[in-house]
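#help-structures
NK: newbie question, is this the right format to request a structure? protein is DUF433 domain-containing protein
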Amino acid sequence: MSAVFDLLERPTYMMAQVDRLLGLPDGTARRWIDGNGRSGKPRLPVIREDHTGEESVTWGEFIEARFLSAFRSANVPIVNMRPVMDFLRSETGCRYPLAHKAHLSTSTGRELVQRVQDVVKLDQALKLVVIRNGRHVLTAPAETYMNAVRFNEDGDAAGMCPDPDLREITIDPLRAFGEPVVQDRSVPTEVIAEQVRAGDPEEMVADLYELSRGQVRAAVLFEQRRKNEMR
């Protein structure tokens, strides 16, 4: 078992943390990752192969939840993505196919995704890949996801930028218990924002944690945006 595989299988969050980190309504992560029942009718998960009742979330599951979050604005139930996930797991032999760069960045990977979409008759609003000028290209939500995730040299998800406008902020499962931190530092953005809200000058907070004032402002803005998204 490789170190990368261990990372993807690493229990990193609880369900409520995933909602908080991705700015999702309460209970969304649980529905996507582990399924649920509504009016006595069970709903299969999108990310896990079967309902397990497990509260902890692996890094690989979190990354795939981030992928699904890119399609939240589509007026189509995310559960319709499940056949694609099942098919990709079967075709690639990967438990977390969307946590591997090659499956969305290479021509071979995109051709596979496009074929899977056609086989399962995926809703247009949820498509990952489309054909333009004879080439397989990512749709806007899939492109957003790829720009947000940091892949290591082996092409596996190793980190994530939670806000595309604030590249100074990153999420890494091996730093600060997976909480958002300032890039290249391990100071949680929530800690920085709380000190500024408490009245500490930005310059003092920057000196305390050896950050630039721009990084402090980015952390504060990130926390403000995240709280607004969850209202």
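mod (FA): yep, format's fine, and the tokens are attached above. Strands lie at 11-14, 36-38, 41-43, 56-58, 129-132, 135-138, 149-151, 157-160, 169-170, 181-182.
NK: thank you!
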